[in-house]
Amino acid sequence: MTATEPVDLTVADLHPALGDPALTSMNFLNEVSERYPAAVSLAAGRPYEEFFDLAAVHRHLDTFHKHLTDDLGHSSEQARRLLLQYGRTKGIVHHLIARNLAVDEQITVDPEAVVVTVGCQEAMFLVLRALRAGPEDVLLAVAPTYVGLTGAARLVDLPVWPVAGGPSGVDLADLSVQVRRARAAGLRPRACYVMPDFANPSGVSISAEDRRRLLTLAAEEDLLLLEDNPYGLFHSADGPRPPTLKALDTGRRVVYLGSFAKTVLPGARVGYVVADQRVAGPDGRVGPLADQLAMIKSMVTVNTSPIAQAVIGGRLLENGCSLVAANTRERSAYTRNLRHLVTGLRRRFPGRAAVRWTVPAGGFFVVVTVPFPVDDALLDRSARDYGVLWTPMAHFYDDTAPVCALRLSVSAVTPQQIDVGLDRLTALITDEVARRAG
Ligand SMILES: Cc1ncc(COP(=O)(O)O)c(C=O)c1O
Fold first, then answer.
1. Which of 163, 177, 326, 381 could be cross-linked to 319 through a Cys-Cys bond (beta carbons 3.0 to 4.6 Å apart)?
2. Does 100 contact ligand 1 (Cβ within 6 A)?
3. Cis peptide before 144, with omega less than 30 degrees from 0?
4. How many CB atoms lie within 10 A of CB 20?
């Protein structure tokens, strides 16, 4: 090879995760929607964007800046530096996140146990990187599983071992079986990833009793629980929400993963992790797991943009640190859409047992089960010939078995778009059933 010859690499020469469906899944789904921009998208789990307001972003920044000077006593020089310079690895809105968790979730947490991250995605990556100590380590995860979690696990060479989700959100008997099976195979299950509230993609929530049982089981099996909660605020029913696992956690079993993508702005790319587990360092000094995660973060993103954090901080401050209060419009839009979708399905598929759907108590997602396998080729045809996008549920399972289900999302559409999307989906399903019968 000469010095001027271009160097060609193949994926086979790169990290094995790069050839893995878990990593290509998101790109594929984005590509399909870019290829068919006129299609109605019941695929995107993006938040409703009609409420986004650029002027509010400026105001949030100012509010946070004022908080730094007036409440925390920083000089304007210090406040300017905090916002515009490199900064604290664990973040600068940790105290507001701790306050938010106390106000909205009755979670008491030391702000030092919080790491502010570049989206929840980075939080997942940091936790998985830290937990993967050796080749015997595995992560249990309720299936179907959010593909961002599976992809992050791949990148740190941590196998994901599925646990049945089922209608109750987590099958506790199966969790015990899988822990034992993994241990019998010489593996070390480090943690179980769960989404107790309106899971992505299943939409299912775990009952308050099962949350308590899950914590007991985690203690008995000496497992950590990774609780991911991006959708918990968007419950449809009136009345109290069930407590988060972290609120019930008296034994530091739960690592809590938070995202401001759905409750403030996805463009800010801010999330966080609460990691209050105590870790003894080589010198015998004990600190929160958050400190170890910060060490990893310092080598991944250094620190989360303080400007982005300030936007989140300002929004929190303007709402008494309550995202419940900040999201009343959003919650009612999602509730209205979810009801509209479920009513629309009922109207379009009356008495057709072959087509079934979940009726979630909140969140963004409904899963529709159909009498034929749903794959990427069908999605492509749906977008091209019928003008409607959705997500094949196969993307959320870590194997190649056919899956006869698709995920619909109500978050980024209007009721009118839901009607159009459902009409088109109904035509697709009807034609597909007829095609297979004939
Ligand atoms: C379950 C779940 N966890 C994490 C994330 C990632 O959140 P973020 O945008 O804060 O990285 C998402 C995004 O859709 C999600 O659905």
1. 326
2. no
3. yes
4. 16
Report the C-alpha gap between 245 and 262 in whole angstroms.
20
Ligand 1 pocket member 146 (CB < 6 A): yes
Measure 115 CA to ligand 1 centroid, in angstroms: 16
Predicted confidence at residue 1, as pLDDT, reads 58
Q: How many whole angstroms from 285 Cα to the centroid of ligand 1?
A: 33
Taking alpha carbons only, the member of 77, 104, 106, 74 closest to residue 92 is: 74
Assign 324 to helix, strand or coil: helix
Cβ-based neighbours of 314, under 8 Å, separated by 6 or more: 59, 60, 61, 62, 63, 64, 67
Show the tokens assigned to 406.
Answer: 């698709």
415 lines ligand 1 (CB under 6 A): no
Which pair of tokens denotes residue 378? 């069908």
Please write the tens of the pLDDT for every residue from 340-382: 999 999 999 998 679 999 999 999 999 999 999 999 999 999 9
Q: How far is CA 354 from CA 52, 347, 404, 434, in A?
A: 39, 15, 11, 13
Q: What separation in Å is there between the alpha carbon of 266 and the centre of ligand 1?
A: 9
- Residue 232 Cβ contacting ligand 1 at under 6 Å: no
Ligand 1 near 271 CB (within 6 A): yes
Substitution candidate for ligand 1 out of 145, 259, 272, 311 with most atoms within 8 A of CB? 259
Other CB atoms within 10 A of residue 5 CB: 7
pLDDT, tens only, 3-48: 677 778 998 899 999 988 888 888 888 899 899 999 999 998 999 9
- Could you tell me if the CB of 364 is within 6 A of ligand 1? no
**Ligand 1 atom with minimal separation from the 195 CA:** 1
The values of phi and psi at residue 291, to 5°, are -65, -40
- Structural contact between residues 251 and 219, judged by C-beta atoms closer than 8 angstroms: yes
- The CB of 119 under 6 Å from ligand 1? The reply is yes
Cα 193 to chain centroid, rounded: 11
Residue 86, classified by CB atoms within 10 Å of its CB into exposed (0-12), middle (13-18) or buried (19+), is exposed
Q: How far is the CA of 235 from the centre of ligand 1 (A)?
A: 17
With CA atoms as reference, report the closest residue to 165 among 182, 150, 144, 138: 144
Identify the residue whose tokens are 């629980």. Answer: 225
Cβ(259) – ligand 1 distance below 6 Å: yes
